[in-house]
Amino acid sequence: MVTIPTGFIGNSVRAAEVALSGLFEKSQRRTMSIADVKRNGGSVFVLQNALELVGNTPMVDVSHLSPNPNVRIVAKLESQNPFGSVKDRIAKAMIEDAERTGRLVPGQRIVEPSSGNTGIALAAIAKMKGYPITILMPTSVSIERRQMLEVFGAEIILTPGEEGSNGAVRRAQELAAQHPEWCFLYQYANDANPRAHYEGTGPEIYRDCPEITHFVAGLGTSGTLMGTGKYLKEQNPDIKIVAVEPPLGERVEGLRNLDDGYIPPVFDNWHGRDLLDRKRVVRPRESLEWTRRLVQECGIFAGISSGASLAGAAKVASEIEEGVVVFIVCDGGWKYLSTGAYTDDLDQAEANAEKIIYF
Predict the structure, then answer these.
(1) What architecture (CATH level 2) is domain 87-184?
(2) DSSP state of 307
(3) Which of 40, 116, 276, 278 lies 20 to 30 Å from 241, alpha-carbon distance?
(4) What value does the mean pLDDT of the chain take?
(5) Which option is the CATH number for 59-85+191-352: 3.90.79.10, 1.10.10.10, 3.30.70.660, 3.40.50.1100?
């Protein structure tokens, strides 16, 4: 038995989980839950680098926001990943998979379209590993996103804001075709994207909250829903997988409506239509309202797409008799301070949402 001295708080708990798993032979390896660590006390482990902090994010009960007293709502705080979002998982997985398969070699340039979070995580990891990187993003992203990319030394190519994320994707595809010597990771079709959630996010949720009855997440690249949903269904086929999407023709950035015309290859490859049990529509104003509630009533400073997922979770809670609904807090709110999403008049904030990409 491993005895852990006292002293864990915050991210140190996750550091302990990672370090503890390395103390066992592969055949016996076991990742301790946050509850296990707290029961045994804790001390600070020194990790080799920030990449070891990716994953094993905490979960927080926010059931006082539930419209149904018989339904718990639990948030998984992906904002606690080292580079700030759920996309840290797929950035790490895609780069490591490309290295392992020989698609990415030392000194090779990475190119990727992103409205922010994936690009930031890729840029951070690329900087650590010595890869040059080019990120294509719409002009309509918040200034904080561009600044973070600049911090990590990424080359930024801006695409027309009115074309949104899809415009950045098209331009990246063209650029990758012109430069076959570059490594185009293409998160929308990269199997390492959903696999990161199948091997990480899903097992963590089921480990820490085995009583889960519903899983709710936004439909963007669809990697989170596909990977996590597949794992949870394998553990308990009765768990319902719920996608949050905006109304047709309306914008809740980071989310997409499949009827708008673009279906991510990841969604088809992982049999998304069979995996999803239902979809819930969330409007931009609802996303802002629930984001503000998450901040003001729970102390969780989350991004706008997290509010959309919480709004979806609340809709599910109001429709069932009892259960436990888990949703994803995709990222933190610090990248959106310049947008007025948290402090402006709600009507003004909603109007801003039509101009600024939030996720």
Answers:
(1) 3-Layer(aba) Sandwich (3.40)
(2) H
(3) 116
(4) 86
(5) 3.40.50.1100
Would you tell me how many other CB atoms lie within 10 Å of the CB of residue 352?
18
10 Å CB burial of residue 185 (0-12, 13-18, 19+) is buried
Torsion, Cα of 166, 251, 310, 18 (10° steps):
20
pLDDT in tens, 264-309: 899 999 999 999 999 999 988 999 999 999 999 999 999 999 999 9
Residue given tokens 């103390």 in the structure block = 23
- Helices (H), ranges, 253-353: 265-269, 272-275, 284-298, 304-319, 346-352
User: Cα–Cα–Cα angle for 260, 262, 268, nearest 5°?
Assistant: 120
Angle at CA of residue 84, ends 82 and 87, nearest 5°: 95
Domain positions in the chain: 11-47, 59-85+191-352, 87-184
How far from the centroid of its chain's Cα atoms is residue 288's Cα? Answer: 18
Distance CA 239, CA 231 (A): 10
> In terms of C-beta density within 10 A (0-12 exposed, 13-18 middle, 19 or more buried), how is residue 49 classed?
exposed
* pTM confidence score: 0.85
What is the enclosing helix (H) or strand (E) of 100? helix 87-101
Low-confidence ranges of the chain (pLDDT < 70): 1-44, 248-261, 355-359
Tell me the backbone φ, ψ of residue 198, rounded to 5 degrees. Answer: -65, -35
Residue 61 · residue 49 · CB < 8 Å:
no
End-to-end CA distance of the chain: 43
Nearest to 271 by CA among 235, 298, 241, 248: 241
Residues classed as catalytic: 87, 305
